[in-house]
Amino acid sequence: MKPINLKQKHAEFSKQWHPHQIAVVDDMQVLLAKLQGEFVWHAHENEDELFQVVKGTLYMQFRDRIEVVNEGEIIVVPKGVEHNPMTKNGEEVHVLLFEKMGTAHTGNLQHEKTQTHYPKI
Amino acid sequence: MKPINLKQKHAEFSKQWHPHQIAVVDDMQVLLAKLQGEFVWHAHENEDELFQVVKGTLYMQFRDRIEVVNEGEIIVVPKGVEHNPMTKNGEEVHVLLFEKMGTAHTGNLQHEKTQTHYPKI
């Protein structure tokens, strides 16, 4: 019930592609992450996933196109849809995520980037 | 699956204290609203409610204190907790809300500010 400053929270961690939990709303969680380069193709079978770009430009790759998500924009990836977030030119992009508690960030895929624990900050 | 620009969406309506739906994530909805002055004391018996301040400064009144929520900050109001959002000095504050589908924005209270329909924009 205290205000949470997104920039301050983003400054509390440096590891990329590793979501950190800042809040819970019913059975959904609010995560922050830092992205640079390309993630990995995956889908979430049962969960939608919302990305909000707080800093930089996110390129959300779908199998048939790429959506450019600028600062101050959100994009919802529906359940079951393959996607692969990417940044360009070495830019580190800061995002906020809204998704169900327990959503695996690489979906069914087990990958070297897979994190099983999201620290609370 | 298209990016949604919050500022552009906020520009599409002018009515204050009237949430507009911009996205759905599983059984939760993302709403935008414009606030000016004081709302009304209420609680949501079964739903948490997240506020994100996109523009301006929100003063979230609780029965025992006021939390100041600045631009770029979020605050989660837990279910059952009485609250009353307010702005100061005639400022119009723009917020994003994240809450369960069907959450009544005045809770159990029926009030002249109560809106039963949230337009999709």
UniProtKB/TrEMBL annotation, chains A, B:
<protein>
    <submittedName>
        <fullName>Cupin 2 conserved barrel domain protein</fullName>
    </submittedName>
</protein>
<dbReference type="InterPro" id="IPR052044">
    <property type="entry name" value="PKS_Associated_Protein"/>
</dbReference>
<feature type="domain" description="Cupin type-2">
    <location>
        <begin position="37"/>
        <end position="96"/>
    </location>
</feature>
<dbReference type="Pfam" id="PF07883">
    <property type="entry name" value="Cupin_2"/>
</dbReference>
<dbReference type="InterPro" id="IPR014710">
    <property type="entry name" value="RmlC-like_jellyroll"/>
</dbReference>
<dbReference type="InterPro" id="IPR011051">
    <property type="entry name" value="RmlC_Cupin_sf"/>
</dbReference>
<dbReference type="InterPro" id="IPR013096">
    <property type="entry name" value="Cupin_2"/>
</dbReference>
